[in-house]
Write a structure and sequence with these properties.
Layout lengths: L3 H10 L4 E5 L5 H10 L3 E5 L3 H8 L10 H9 L3 E4 L10 E4 L14 H13 L4 E5 L7 H14 L7 E5 L18 E5 L2 H11 L6 E4 L2 H32 L3 H8 L23 H11 L5 H26 L9 E5 L14 H11 L3 E5 L5 E4 L2 E4 L4 H7 L2 E4 L8 H7 L3 E3 L14 E3 L1
Parallel strand pairs: 1-2, 1-4, 2-3, 4-5, 5-6, 7-8, 9-10, 9-13, 13-14, 14-15
Antiparallel strand pairs: 6-7, 11-12
Helix pairs in contact: 1-7, 5-6, 8-10, 8-11, 11-12
The structure holds ligand SAJ.
């Protein structure tokens, strides 16, 4: 007689398993489509009715998912969406892809995970596998999700249902590494949990990497993004030190990057934006503080990265001062507001801090971003300037904060009176140019 786990795995192999994806954002929707295209019947569950309506009409609202893919799956009856969590009752496999932001206090906000887990606990049944994908502190799956599911159902994890963690590695807009071909780490609460989760994921994903526990999988994700945040902090501090030394940090980095081994190039900038890198490491440091340990590298890197907007405004103030212009009353144009080039995402963007600091110093600040028509942040609103050439020409200072590819940098250099280039966007054009200040 086959066990519950064997019966479940058989359902994955013959595609009779019903898949549910909880949370249909930039992680959940691509995952839903990948499982649908692998032959599963997928129900997407999201509390936002507009998303559900769009998906059921075959429309996508996520950059990486063409509407044609959604339309095709909806027409085939392989994808539907609902706001009703009771749909979980029919699911054999559930992936939780909900946000894990920070609160205003800087502490983790697990409210989305708790809410999803509460709903799931009402509908968990024997023969179900649940995988948490949301980035979180090590121990969340075992300490927070597991008790809720067992207590509410009376079922036993690892016997009746199976629970695992698998970190999302979605990089929106990326075409080389996508949901289907990016290696996927999976760690289970028990060995049978791991088997069930791996048996599910490997039906649709090209490379599934089993690891020894859910905590290893949770911590691997945090290492990945903490590694990045700390190295960006290091290179930002290199920029500050080179500034004090009067050495060009961009030349230093290019020189170091010629080392074919044992070095990885990062570049300085006006700060650390995005919804992953500035945030994920703080989930780790928060957890360790509860264990009476201070994650020194994370806290120091966070301090340095958070200070970069102030460093940029200081460079701007000095450059204007050299031209007998106070920041107060000067026309300053911020070029590029998104948190990184060629995208429309403003989350945690250092441009927001640079603009706020300049306004507080009395500057007459405007911005341009081809992907972001307007900004509303901490009580101020601003529209992207419509006539870029005129704005550049009329500005006392232009600060290149985000180096979108679409900008005509030679034309900007020609029209501008003064440029603070925080991204080395001007490259050789900016070197030694009296109207260009590089980080
Ligand atoms: N940044 C620098 N210097 C660098 C690299 C980045 O200042 O050398 C800044 C960016 O301008 C941005 C912030 O750091 O403000 C984050 O940039 P990012 O390149 O890390 O972009 P993200 O936030 O989209 O990071 C995502 C991550 N992907 C996932 O978490 C699944 C990250 O692990 C990827 O390495 C990164 O995309 C990527 O490589 O594009």
């Amino acid at each position: 007689m086959s066990t519950i786990k064997e019966q479940l795995i058989a359902k994955f192999q013959d595609r009779s398993a019903h898949v549910a994806i909880l949370g249909l954002g930039y992680v959940g929707l691509p995952l839903a489509v990948v499982f649908g295209e692998a032959g599963f019947h997928v129900t997407g569950i999201d509390p936002i009715a507009e998303k559900v309506e769009m998906l059921n009409k075959g429309e996508s609202y996520v950059l990486d998912v063409p509407s044609a893919q959604v339309t095709d799956l909806v027409k085939k009856g392989r994808l539907n969406a609902t706001t009703d969590f009771a749909a979980l009752r029919e699911a054999d496999a559930v992936s939780i892809c909900v946000p894990t932001p920070l609160r205003k206090t800087g502490d983790p906000d697990l409210s989305f995970v708790v809410s999803a887990s509460n709903e799931l606990a009402k509908h968990v049944h024997a023969g179900m596998v649940i995988v948490l994908e949301s980035t979180t502190y090590p121990g969340t799956t075992r300490e927070l999700i597991l008790p809720q599911l067992e207590q509410n159902s009376g079922l036993k994890c690892g016997k009746d249902f199976f629970l695992a963690f698998s970190p999302e590695r979605v990089d929106p807009g990326r075409e080389d590494w996508t949901t289907i071909n990016t290696p996927k780490v999976v760690g289970g609460i028990t060995a049978d949990c791991l088997d069930a989760a791996v048996a599910w994921y490997c039906q649709a994903l090209q490379k599934v990497v089993p690891v020894s526990s859910a905590e290893v999988a949770e911590m691997a994700k945090l290492l990945e993004n903490t590694f990045r945040m700390i190295n960006i902090g290091l290179v930002n501090e290199m920029a500050i030190m080179c500034d004090r030394l009067g050495v060009d940090v961009w030349d230093v980095i290019e020189a170091a990057a010629t080392k074919p081994f044992g070095f990885m190039k990062f570049t300085p900038g006006p700060g650390l934006g995005g919804h992953c890198i500035p945030i994920d490491p703080l989930y780790l440091s928060w957890k360790l503080r509860a264990l009476n340990y201070t994650a020194k590298f994370i806290e120091l890197a966070s301090e340095i990265n958070t200070n970069m907007p102030r460093f940029v405004v200081g460079k701007t103030q000095d450059a204007l001062n050299d031209r007998q212009k106070p920041v107060n009353g000067s026309k300053i144009l911020v070029l590029g507001a998104a948190y990184k080039p060629d995208i429309d995402d403003l989350r945690e963007s250092p441009a927001l801090d640079v603009i706020g600091l300049l306004m507080r110093k009395g500057a007459n600040v405007s911005y341009h971003d081809p992907y972001i028509a307007q900004i509303s942040h901490e009580g101020w609103q601003m529209q992207s300037v419509s006539n870029l050439e005129a704005a550049v020409r009329q500005a006392d200072c232009v600060i290149i904060v985000t180096n979108h590819k679409v900008y005509d940098y030679p034309a900007i250099l020609k029209s501008a009176q003064l440029i603070i280039d925080t991204r080395n966007a001007l490259g050789e054009m900016g070197r030694g140019n009296p109207k260009v200040v590089r980080l």
